[in-house]
Amino acid sequence: MLSIFREGFFRDLLIWFVISVILASLVAAGVGLVTDRYFAATVDGLIGDQGEYDLLFQVRTDLKETAVARLQEIIKERVPGSTVKVGVSVAGKTAVFVGLAPKHRKKAVYTNLNNYFRDIPGAGGFSLMTEPRLTLSAIPSSVADLYIREAERIPGVRFAFRDGSSIAVILEKATKMKEVKAALEELLASYRLLEIGFPAGYHVDNPIEVGRNLTELLAGKGGVTLIRNVTSGKSSDDQEALLLTMAEMKRFLLSYAGQVKVIPTQGVTLNPGDLLVLFDDTEHSLAAGERVSAQDVIVKVTAEEEDGALPGLIIQGDSADFTSASARILGDDQKAGDIVGSIIINSPKQQLAEALDEAIGFLGQFNSFQELPTQARQVITAAETIQAALNSINGLDADNADLAKIQRIASLLEGTSHELQNMADHLARLRWVENQLDKALGSLEGIHAITRLGFIPQNLGYFGDLGQKMGRLDRELQALIGDLRAKAQALDDFINRFNPLVHTLLDWEQKTTKLAGQLDQVGSVLGGGSTGFAALAELTGVTDDSLEQFAAFDFEALRQGLTPLELGFDELSASNVLLIIGELEKIKSSLPKLKDEEITKTVTLLDRYLGGETLPGEKVELFVNADYDQKEVARLVNSFFDSDEVRILPLPAGILQPDVRNEVTRLLGEVQGVIAALAVLILAVIIFLQDQAPILAVLHHLDLLFPHRETTGKAASQPRKVTALSRFLPRIYAASLGGGWLWATISLSGARIPYFPNHYFLLVGALFGLLFYRMAEKFHRLNLDEVVAGYALGFNFTTVMREIVIPAGRPGLMQKLNQRKMVMK
Amino acid sequence: MNTALRPPLLQIQDLKKSYQKRPVLKGINLNIFAGETIIIMGPSGCGKSTLVRCINRLTEPDDGHIIFDGVEVTSLPFAQLSGLRRRIGFVFQQFNLIRRLNVLENVAFALRIYGQEKTEARDRAMQALARVGLRERAQNFPAELSGGEQQRVGIARALALEPQLMLWDEPTAALDPILVSEVIEIMEELVRQKETTMLVVTHEVGFASRAADRIIFMDQGTIVEEGHPTAVFSTPQSEIAKKYKKLLKT
Prior knowledge:
Chain A is an alpha+beta fold. Helix content of chain A is 57%, strand content 13%. Chains A and B meet through α26 and α27 of A and β1, α2 and α3 of B.
């Protein structure tokens, strides 16, 4: 049976195998190459060709022209001869490349690039693209210069400089990449960053100072030949930033939540952990023995008694439900017990909301205050009129007080009663305004105080929108409060100086008008100059002092005193006020609408994570040589802190970032490999369907070629062998063909699947071949009659395959190759 | 004919064959002499076709001997079977023509494969087709022929090689009764011409009675009766022979 493998058909198969593998490899490699070219062209469009450009700006597409014009201006001024190219636009951003002229590819220029290109409209900065380049990142900033010096000593390096928080190492030639990379890796490996951290609860006042002390302690000991304190108090580590954020959130939430103080009743002892249910005499009544419901407010005592009160947290309900309350102890059976104390609730969130409402209300009336200066001036004008009128009366004094004078005063006052009334009205309004201003100032100062409690961070962008708003509001509030205070002062001054006079005038008016009328009737009786008349004049309150004061009143000074009011209101333009109103309303809507119980749950959750974790800002970082004695250094550090819980972590003092282009090229290479592999797999299916299905189908009927005997007779040995062979040979053929074909094609085509070595395809291909063998008769309907006819005519296996089986299959490579061997074409 | 002085062309000795432990041939002994026309008859499943297919080892016998023209067929290596099969023509029940080849190509197929020049092979094929009355259908493909025509092409294909022995495995079983006669005619003509030795498995009793030199009746894997048609049909000994005799009468 094995002799069939010496037949010509198997040579045909071998030729088919070689040709199909080569063709499939070429096709798959071609597909991969086309894909690679396409993506590479796209990438080049995004980041430019190798070494072509040095800087990449991502500018807003709508500001592209402006940005490019500005770039060209800067280039002309700073780095003449450099080029600008506009790349592709993606998602509203356009890539703009700048290629520095060769003469400007110097360290001095690169070090100043941030200064040169700082005001590009629509751009947030630039990325360095100069090639060939390697980047060292995660370098402590205080040792960056050391790394730069060391890097510049490496052969093949042109220069190195700081690029943001990294160090860019520019090479002389791309061919030096490998050596320089190895040297930089060795450089990084020669140092370590020792992170000395403390568990939560272990507080260090000044980590930087501690770092300094540790540096002095460790210098020269435990194999430490180089040490620098690089403690910054800041953390660039993502996890530590997360911890910081969570700690801040916890602090904010605790400040924002309703603060409860429990004042225990005489003789009652409360402990941390006790649960109390609140009640009052109005809506939230609760009797002893009553079962607590989900609507009741429950407080948990959180600390020991201090100054007669215990702090608590609301774990169910909200502080807004109460202003003051009493507390009953809550039993395990969820029933209210005896009264154990009274509760004081301070709710910053309530206060903030109310203060915001008042401020918004006040600022809403702002427009009406614009008339204040005008009204005040009208008062002055009216008073000046009166003054002028009074001055026309000569020698007003008691001695010369006579009927004529009084009558003239009365007449004058009557004539100016309208102005007097106006003055009084204006003053009343001013007084009201003054009251409003006082209230507003009180509210705004209240808001300011609350926001400055610090529970809402002032850091811009710290909490995103809310933090930014609060920072901005704080500045505006401060300005507004200052201005309003000045105005209120000016107004108060005005009113206080003017008010007595106006009241006096009003009083005069009333009394003199009445008296004048009466004097008309009695004038002839009394006559002027009599003592009785003087007494009468006194009674009316017309005194020389008052008249003199009035005459001497400095209206000019008063007018000048109004200047702060006028100027201030002009400066506080409507847009500022509207801005502030808008910000206050946004802040009010942004405030977390959290109930106290929700706050408590969140805080508990944060504690679960924060508990035991080291918080950033509570660690020391030291830069040391890598070959220090770990045990000795650990011993020294532990003894310094007198604690065994100090955590010492040696970390790499920087990492070598692969070049972006190389990384992209590598990734594209992987993509190319994967695409080629997929192409190979598809081609395998097609080729096996076209070419191998008929052959594998025939192999299912090897008994036609080698019919076997069932009984074991004299010539049993050969039949038994034949039986075994005819059963296993087809499978062996299918598995080896599949495995060999796939592996060879994958290898030749350059196909690669990440994490899947090529030799695994031997197994995959074998399984593929076996599967194909199993399904062969479904893929190819073999006409057994023709095959039997061929055998009956005395044809051998090769002839049957070449003349009958292959020609009856699908058109493919096998048929094509077979045609030249056929007799009956 | 006088067979006493000649060695048999085909000797079958104690031939046995089983399928999945079920015996189909239980020790067949048979001698066929050159020029004879032997008809094998019997009920379905009696082993007739198996016997015929064992002769050229299309079916492998389990035991026994087959000696064809002095060559021990049963122990012949596979590689040498081809040569044997060229000398033994085979006509199949289902015709077994090659569909991609036309009639002429089907008949010339083996001739071409065995090295004859195209023209010579064509001529011989045409002669074979003439013998079966299908010259004018030389360019047609099997799908364009009737069953009887296809079978005649099959006969021509087998004859083209001028075999020493022709094996016929129920050549008319797949044909409509109307078409059977055209094939029987060809077969009877071949018998008359005495060009080849024929071993025919058939149910055609009339043909058997007219054409056979011997009729062999088989039943359940054994030969139950054999003899000249006149003898077996006049005085059948076996039940099978008696049944076939009744068919003859009808």
